[in-house]
Every structure is written in C-alpha cells, then in structure tokens.
C-alpha cells in the first residue's frame, strides 16, 4: 500500500492509475477504522481495480461545541488495517494541506441538508459536502463508497453528485452491527459500559419499528410511538433527539407507510450523540 499526504501526490498517483485504464474506488473516512469502514473497503476492493482510502478528520463538519479535538485518531493502526485489506493507496492529509488559509467556498447541501442532523448540527452537511467534492476532485473516482449508517449523509452525497453532474457512482453499503445490534461507529469508543448498554435502545427501537411495519402497521405515528416508548424506558441517560419515519429519498416525515420509508433515530447517551436507521418496507415485507 502506498501512502501519500499531499494533494499533488494523490492526484498524480490517481491520474497515472486512470491513464493505465484502471477503475478507481474511493472510500472517504475520518479514520478510527472499524469493521463498518472495512465493509466499505471490501466493497470497493470487489468492484474496482484500484482502491484509495482517505483518512481525514474534516474540521469543516464539526460544530464549535463538538468533538473535533477529541475525535479518535490512530493513523498507524488504520494503515495496518487498510494494508491487510489490500488497499492500494492511503491518502491522509493534514487540515492545512486540505484547506488553504484563503479557503471560503462551501458546497450548499440543499434542502436535504437542513433536516434532522442538519437541524441538530448546523453547517455539518455543508462541511461534509465540501470535503467530499474536494476528494472527488483530487482522486477522480469511478465509484465512491458510503455506509447506510449515516443515511442522511449518503442521500446528500447522492444528491450533490447528481445535481452537480459529477459522474461518480455512489455505492451504499449496509450498516455493520455488533452481535448485540449496536451499529458500529467510531464514537462508540466514547461509551462507558453502562452507556453502551443504554445505547442498545436505538437498535431495539428500530427493530421494533421494522417488525411493526412488517406485520402490516401503516401508521407512521404508531411506529414513532413504539420507538420513543422503547427509548424512553431504556436505562437512564438516553435522551432522544428524534425518532421519525421518513420518505427514504427526500427524508420528509411520513404520516403513512405508503412508499419506500426509513426509520431514523438520534439520541444522546450520556454525552455521546449516536444515530442509527433502518429500512421499512412499505409493502409490509422485511428488508
Ligand atoms: O462519514 C464520514 O466519516 C465523513 O463524514 C466523511 C464522509 C469521510 C467526510 O468527512
């Protein structure tokens, strides 16, 4: 695996690879890699000739009171994991390399960016969209791989690529969960043992919503009530920010499950903010 940290180097290596007729898969990450990231890498490895993984903790997507300073960073471990997955290129720039002091252009993520996470974390998706567009510009991938765990991010990246005619295929990779149901996230590292038990309320609530929809419940309000019921009776220190049933494409709240839908949840467990989601089958079947 080659390692580069400058924009010039990543662009040069990727241009050479493209000139050789190889397809390029990009997996953008912020490091602290876990099996969820490795599922993205494996999907890229299976579909592309050349796999580039970026590790960059993007300051533009953190709010002033968020965890930019304490976000877990362990580049040596990340590099070992990526080399074992047969990744071709690791791009790990520093913030000064990615953003010149004069940088002030931001990508507006549109209406999708203002809902749910966008309401709780103003500016977050503009930061995500901006770094993703920059990475696409530097690497020139044929395909880029994003997890369904960050479902709103996935939808926004798809919309940005489509609206800006970027010609990158966005591949969605299913959420990877621990055996007990907790969706893998780098922020799970912040959870103490009791908090981790409390955090299971998110996946329990989503499972309940999916089971209700699979058994024919079409009233979105009933699903939301069931999710909140589970979250509210979970061990203390779980504070729900939202638990909603939304259109799977526009993320608008639904009254009835009459189209492709998603149940989405955000909650604070102690001081750690977690998000999760599942697909709901509007036809009443399981997915
Ligand atoms: O999902 C993430 O880790 C980040 O939001 C991403 C897509 C790498 C952009 O910084």
Oligomer: single chain
Low-pLDDT sequence parts: none
Task: Give the distinct bound molecules.
Answer: pantoate
Helical percentage? 25-40%
* Overall average pLDDT: 96
Structural class: alpha/beta
Major β-sheet, in short?
6 strands, parallel
Tell the overall outline: globular
Distance between the termini: 36 Å
* Beta strand %: 15-25%
How many DSSP helices? 9
Strand order of the largest sheet: 1-4-3-2-5-6
- Gyration radius from CA atoms, angstroms: 19 Å
Order of helices and strands: EHEHEHEHHHEHEHHEEE
Give your account of this protein's structure.
With 287 residues, the chain is α/β, with parallel strands linked by helices. 38% of the residues lie in helices and 20% in strands. Strand 2 (24-29), helix 2 (35-47) and strand 3 (50-55) form a beta-alpha-beta unit. It is globular and about 55 Å long. The model has no long low-confidence stretch (mean pLDDT 96). It binds pantoate. Pantoate binds at residues 28-30, 58, 61, 128, 131-132, 150, 153.
Report a brief summary of the structure.
By secondary structure, the chain is an alpha/beta fold.
Topology:
Layout: E1 2-4, H1 7-19, E2 24-29, H2 35-47, E3 50-55, H3 75-84, E4 89-91, H4 95-98, H5 117-120, H6 124-139, E5 143-147, H7 151-163, E6 169-173, H8 193-214, H9 220-232, E7 238-247, E8 261-269, E9 272-280
Parallel strand pairs: 1-4, 2-3, 2-5, 3-4, 5-6
Antiparallel strand pairs: 7-8, 8-9
Helix pairs in contact: 6-7, 8-9
Key attributes of the depicted protein:
9 strands; globular; alpha/beta; 287 residues; three-stranded antiparallel beta sheet; six-stranded parallel beta sheet; 9 helices; single chain; binds pantoate
